[in-house]
Amino acid sequence: MEKDDKHKSLGKLAVFAAAAVVLVFGAHGAGGETRETRKPCKDHPMLSGSCYAVRGRMTLANGTPSIRIWPVGTRRILGVSEGRFFLKDYRNIPDDLAGLLTWENAVFADFTVCPFTDDRPGVMRFVCVESAENVEVKSRK
After folding, report:
1. Which of 83, 93, 126, 133 meets the CB 3.0–4.6 Å disulfide criterion with 116?
2. Which residue in 62, 55, 48 sits closest to 128, CA to CA?
3. For 39-50, how does the pLDDT look when each residue is reduced to its tens digit (9 = 90+)?
4. Considering only CA atoms, which of 77, 55, 51, 81 is closest in space to residue 66?
5. Do the beta carbons of residue 83 and residue 92 sit within 8 Å?
6. What is d(CA 54, CA 50) in angstroms, rounded to the nearest whole number?
7. Do 80 and 129 meet the contact criterion of CB atoms below 8 Å apart?
8. How confident is the prediction for the chain on average, in pLDDT?
């Protein structure tokens, strides 16, 4: 019986993870528009401050948000908002950038991110990604 409960829990987790991936990587918004027609991150009405540049490593991770950026040389993590700051008319990450991410690789780049939350030590800061330059995809293994 205990083994069946574990399988049910894992099944629920898999469904939740799949739903999160569809939300982040889905090509169409609720109104049928493609993500390319959505407004840029820098114009999002829920931003808490100015956009800024950061060199970092973007990866997929378990938990929410599943897309995270580690600014190189720091002990901080930036979370690319998937839910709380999602608005159907705005992009929280460029499609081409999201398309590079897999569980097996990491994306190093000079990101321009825009904050949804204030910078507080010990707390993941939620951001959206406006752009990425000098992009390099590397294996996580």
Report:
1. 126
2. 48
3. 999 999 999 999
4. 81
5. no
6. 13
7. yes
8. 82
Distance CA 92, CA 114 (A): 9
Residue 68 confidence (pLDDT): 97
d(CA 103, CA 99): 12
> Among 13, 17, 29, 111, which residue's Cα sits nearest to residue 68?
111
CB-based contacts of 74, cutoff 8 Å, min separation 6: none
Tokens of 46: 């829920």
Sign of CA dihedral 88, 134, 72, 140: positive
Q: Which two tokens stand for residue 52?
A: 């800024």
Q: What are the DSSP calls for 70-103, one per residue?
A: EETTSS--EEE-SSTT--TTB-SS-HHHHTT--T
